[in-house]
Amino acid sequence: MRSLFRKKSISQLLQQSRQQTLERTLSAFDLTLLGIGAVIGTGIFVLTGVVAAESAGPALIISFILSGIACALSALCYAEFASTVPISGSVYTYTYATLGEFFAFLIGWDLMLEYIIAIAAVSTGWSGYFQTLLEGFGIHLPTILASAPGSGEGGLVNLPAMIIILIITALLSKGMKESKQVNNIMVVIKLAIIILFIVTGVFYVKPDNWTPFAPFGFEGIITGAATVFFAYIGFDAVATASEEVKRPQRDLPIGIISSLAICTLLYIAVSLILTGMVPYSQLNVADPVTFALQFVGQSSLAGIISVGAITGITTVLLVMMYAQVRVSFAMSRDGLLPKKLSSVHPRLKTPFANTWLTGVIAAIIAGFIDLTTLAHLVNIGTLAAFMLVSIAVIVLRHTHPSLKRAFKVPFVPLLPAISAALCLYLMTSLPAVTWKAFSIWIGIGIIIYFTYSRKHSHLNK
After folding, report:
1. Out of the domains of life, which is the source (predicted)?
2. Structural domain boundaries of the chain?
3. Is 372's pLDDT higher than 60?
4. CATH number given to 24-403+427-456
């Protein structure tokens, strides 16, 4: 039993950080754009319409604010850990140092599911916008190649979703420097497109569309908050970049907090204008931002927005895959997963084999599995991770009170405790089928831990 709670010491983690083999190329600016690249995408271009129509109505803005508050509290906890222990693995690493190996493995296993499903789910959104763009030029993909089986559209494989994942995989396998440059350019384009929508849409807002403000009541607002949490998961990816940051103690807190603040303001502005332009009941579409502009007669701008949506969702894919590879890389380096996943390409200085394995698995899921139900797993996995990192901050303050911290969460243990409670509350608002699927995945993880990871762990030696 004692081996389940064995911990990696802080000194071990810091030593590991100094001996890291990944190239340090990221600045605070790069981290901020990395966070925005991950957070601004599916949330604005896809989820806003569905959640407004089915859960929250115009009170969608309150759902985004509640999720933003929960994320902000978690972001403070992430910032303290990332600046104190700047090493790959994010909440997996933090849990290993505070709560022990068993919980660390389970949250790492949870994060792997979260990111793989997120990559597959986001790629299907990319595929939808890409097909809409092609249709604008009179090009129609055969139905059999344009959607996954079980989606109700008669498809055999979602080929565009598979192709974009493999392109992103090839880019990431070459190196973070090249990936960073592509991400930064696409994020700037994405932000310009969103600002264009806000500036244009504000002139078409009809306050009458905001009545009734909360047609589904408070329960609908909370359900909406738990659902749009999917939109915020990207800032966790910033923490996974710790070993590739030039000045991690200074730059990581800036990147995590600034990216979340910018994204929350944009989500609030877009949801307010979107529900003001179109009656909420008509927003249950795959491309609500484009639909809203077409609704008010701005079809030419709608085409530009589609290009922005494709660009935005591409950056989400890039950062999600990057984060998934870094988590499994850290777990492999600790012996909890096969050694091959932590091997670094001698010339490219990237986890080459790990990146391609992740990309191929995600492409297969995106191409052949309908993700309507599975997408909820991303939310519950993220909330579980945020809850654990909040608890871990309290534990680390108690066990290592004199540890040098470049950034400190204020009002410990109060703020981390509120963060953990809020995440747990949002988890209880998710559908029962989500909890069942999550329990099955965690059960598989427990079997793997006791049959492989516990024996091969470096701490076991």
Report:
1. Bacteria
2. 24-403+427-456
3. no
4. 1.20.1740.10
